[in-house]
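Review form for a predicted model. The reviewer records the input and the model, then writes brief findings.
Reviewer: anonymous (R2)
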Amino acid sequence: MQQVVIDLPAGFAGVVADTRTRAWAALNALRLRWSEGSRTDTAAVEEQVTASHGVVLRRDGSISRALAEGTRVEAAYRTPLAAHAHLEPLAALARVEPGAGGRVELWVPTQSPGSVVEDVRAALGEQREVVLHVTQLGGSFGRKGGQHLAVAAARLSAAAGRPVHVGWTRDTDMRQGFYRPPTHTVMRGSVGTDGRIRGVEQVTAAGDIIWAVAGLPEPVRDLLGFDPGGLLGLFLPYELPAYRLVNRREQLPVPTGPWRGLGLMPNTFALESFVDELAEAAGADPLEFRLAHLSESDPEARRLRTVLRTAAQMARWGEPLPPGRGRGIACSGDVGTVVAMVAEVDLSGGRLRVTGMDVAVDCGLVVNPAGAKLQAQGSVVMGLSSALREELRIEDGQVVSDNFDSYPIIDMASTPRSG
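Model under review:
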């Protein structure tokens, strides 16, 4: 071991050694006492995220009158805490020149270079010249939006007077990160005898996403009342005579933040699942029900119609399947892109298996078709992994899902065919 660095105001402790093994051994030998945080657990966090009231983001027509008409349908949906589970744990290399104004040079895999530079200057001095080399990112999914390991490497390099590389282990990365916030969505709606939706009310609750990494004070977050990252995919794209949307943000004792797609995944899951419930109440085919409620005049609705029909055609929607097998369809839109998917599932043997996914994407001009296809495939696999396997567990204030044995992700054997 060559250097021990303790910064009490910053809550930082680290060691510098000539090998990674010695560095970890020295760090584990330090007798550190930290102020105790929350002793919460998974159940308490999920109970705190309850969709009951909040900020009204949209109000069209009379939802109370609409829910009193026709066949009423209610459902609730939850998504759990989730880790980014990227295959490459966080790492950073720093070289800090001596002196209060010494130049800082960094090699960091990051999605947000500007944030890294700002954070390092805030830690070491605003007068510093910071040169950042952005390396290959690897997996991230929002986890490397900033990169606080760059600050750790810079602190250690400044103290030791030599270049320092910091690389986390898998379990440290899983325990010390921020996570996808849990969500709760309560849906109420009704359909008339003509098969049309009379109205929909959705009440949603979730932890912070954008506000968690934007550095806004809590009073400002409360004043705004909602997190913009949680709005992605939140609004139903269908024609509705009455529509009411209420959103509630929760300040959680667990660090949360951006996770692939921000709020798009949990919101689409809840909304499109509820559309299936409405179609069932109307006695309608899920595809035809969606098409019937998408406007002919709205440009995005027309694009959704096209991808729905394309995905259905690819999946041979309507053709009979063997007993124990079925299909489901859903669609969504975000940042100028619309997507529709058909999943084929097998329930025989008492276990759900996804045997096929057909995807239609309209993202406008495609410069690299191979890259666009890989994005779609990667999104499908990660979405299936999240839906079927992933859940971050907390006990007594500690993350216990700290490696792939306790936080399993989808494997190749469970991944559906690729067309």
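Findings: The longest helix spans residues 369-388.
Further findings: DSSP finds twelve helices and 16 strands in the chain.
Recommendation: see findings above.
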